[in-house]
Write a structure and sequence with these properties.
Two copies of one chain form a homodimer.
Chain A: H1 5-25, H2 32-39, H3 43-49, H4 53-73, H5 80-93, H6 95-110, H7 112-129, H8 136-156, H9 162-177
Helix pairs in contact in A: 1-2, 1-4, 1-6, 2-3, 4-7, 5-6, 5-9, 6-7, 7-8, 8-9
The structure holds a DNA duplex.
DNA sequence: TCCATTCTGGTACGTTTGTACCACAACATT
DNA sequence: AATGTTGTGGTACAAACGTACCAGAATGGA
């Protein structure tokens, strides 16, 4: 499974397209034809670079997850403002993409091939909250809250401002500090 | 769209089948044929009682959501043990069904027809935590934590015992009490 | 330059899909 | 008993699907 640079580029274009289709139409919208059309490549390219639809699917998820993990891990620890901005941007900049990420999470629960990556993504959230690993129990509680916060943002569209997001994160953190 | 009692029973059987297929194969497994086969009725019944696949889908979600809401609302307020047991049973008794419920949540985010029900389900969690509506901000934070807890249970299989679930809920509640 | 590998893009095939249709059985109402 | 509504189940069909195939273009090392 080794490709030329140009081939690799086409492969990447297909993976990008998967994420766009996913963000636009949800997981039901994924098909060889839809993705290849979105990527602007012939149908056969999708079957040439990925041995099955499942492979295409899983590869795209792995990359999306890795990007998300990198985003979380790139956050300066303790900078709540930056953290809140990251959450805000992620959900509201492209709501479809954020929803897709969670849809993929649940897809990962049903596919062993994705489970490991999904757990990694999940735990990276904890690491962003507790980089030193000094308060694991605290991080655990806060990450639960942040997860719920993200769902609420996607769903209800609130908190609707960066400030409000930051305030909520601050509440979650300061609140659970006393219990850790 | 009114049906005879027997017709109504068949309709219900189809809705039940949707939930079973959903729990077993995920949202991608839903089709007229799969559902009718699962329900033990001919294909045409699925098209007779539901004007489209979307209608079947949406109707099943509405019922599943309503049941979930009833479960939450039936909880005796303040009885954390009972609440923890409800969460534990819901996730671990039939993990596929629990995952399906969340998959449907995300489906609801993309379909206006489901949005209202989804929000209702979501808010019923808050009501279970704060029946009197006396501490809305507190309930908001705790419900976020419980949401995250549910995801973690589905995903990582932890906390793995009723006691541990209860302890976590207790932590979430007592912790955020100080911030409300 | 030659040749083997890699990549291209069009086409084809067998399945499964959503949905429509229809002849008929069951039923309720008069 | 007659009649109109409602439910039944088999079948049909066009579309979309995953995937396989292949003739040839492009590419890179000998």
């Amino acid at each position: 499974m080794t490709f030329t640079p140009k081939g690799e580029a086409r492969r990447d274009a297909l993976l990008d397209a998967v994420l766009r289709v996913l963000a636009r139409d949800g997981s039901g919208g994924i098909s060889h034809r839809a993705v290849s059309k979105e990527a602007g490549v012939p149908l056969a390219a999708a079957t040439y670079y990925f041995e099955s639809l499942d492979d295409l699917y899983v590869s795209a998820l792995k990359r999306a997850t890795a990007e998300q993990v990198a985003l979380f891990e790139g956050l300066v620890s303790g900078d709540l403002r930056q953290f809140a901005e990251a959450l805000y941007d992620w959900v509201y900049r492209d709501r479809g993409a954020a929803i897709a990420q969670y849809e993929l999470m649940f897809l990962g629960m049903r596919r062993d091939a994705l489970r490991e990556d999904a757990e990694h993504w999940y735990r990276s959230l904890e690491c962003a909250l507790d980089p030193q690993g000094q308060h694991p129990e605290h991080a655990r509680l806060v990450s639960m809250g942040v997860d719920g916060l993200l769902l609420r943002m996607m769903w209800l569209g609130e908190p609707a401002t960066v400030d409000a997001v930051e305030a909520t994160v601050r509440d979650l953190i300061s609140a659970t500090t006393s219990a850790s």
